[in-house]
Amino acid sequence: MGENTNTTKPKLFITRALPPAVEARARRDYDAITQNEGAVLSAGDIINKSTNCDAILTCPADPINGETIKQLNERIKIIATFSVGFEHVDLGAAAMRNIPVTNTPDVLTDATADVALLLILGATRRAAEGMKLIAENKWTGWTPTQLMGSQIGGKRLGVLGMGRIGQATADRARAFGMEIHYHNRSRLAPELEKGATYHESAEGLLAVSDVLSIHCPLTPETNKFLNAPRIAMLPKGAVVINTARGPVIDDDALITALKTGHISTAGLDVFAGEPKLNQGYTKLDNVFLLPHLGSATIETRNAMGFKALDNLDAFFAGREIPNRVN
Ligand code: DGY
Fold first, then answer.
1. Which residues contact 244 (CB under 8 A, 6 or more apart)?
2. In angstroms, what is the span from residue 84 Cα to ligand 1's centroid?
3. How far is the centre of ligand 1, averaged over its atoms, from the C-alpha of 187 (Å)?
4. What percent of the chain has pLDDT over 90?
5. Domain range for residue 18?
6. Cβ of residue 105 lying under 6 Å from some atom of ligand 1
7. Is the pTM of this model over 0.90?
8. Residue nearest to atom 2 of ligand 1 (CA)
């Protein structure tokens, strides 16, 4: 665990309570102020609460857009996000003010890929419907036809975005006997591809995806990527899985396809407008929904926090920042 040895501790505004070990290290090395758990910060809160601070440690639930960045106190020198995704921080606006922005790659790969598999299995094996039967005390006993799902072995998994998490998801899915297809900006080297079939176009991938798992970042190009015309390109009865970012999916289009049966089921951990997800999903039986838990293990959340602090430590020690994204 790195230690910031400056005698005057930099003042750090943390937008949300962090895991205890991370908070302890932050307090050891920084004059840290933490926002109370649960409260959603407005842009004004972030601006006011970080006045007199040297740095902000934020997370995807506390976006820092261009307007907010313009109004941050001039003392703010760096923004670290407790996440691999960084679309919630306006990198350009930060660069204009010479504020580095950092993220926490690598350490959440396995935890997120585990949840992608949980979603694939939960959706295809109708886990939500089974849990509801038990919770509502409506289970009348085993029958040969009860809650029959579909087997994933032998099915084609389409990985949209074959970065670290996409590859780790593919590794897990291979163990379940799935055939891996992927689309990525560039084709992977054979040792990373591990026999997966590369599709030059995303649309080519859609056509063969019995299960489509989304792992691309949210950018202006991927916003609402999975819209009605592209959903229609998926095989009938396909399954949609998302552990990346909610807005990559056009929710109304997916909900319609889940109702018609063109999409048989969906497993979603992320949603546009979190935490206020499109209520159309909650009325459906053929979905398996989680509240953005992809990285939520104690090991991973500690590692994310330590990485965010490593980035801050490097900056304040005048070293190269390991995970700068702007
Ligand atoms: C991230 O790091 O971007 C994740 O969404 C948090 O789980």
1. 85, 161, 165, 214, 215, 216, 217, 218, 270
2. 5
3. 24
4. 94
5. 11-107+297-316
6. no
7. yes
8. 83
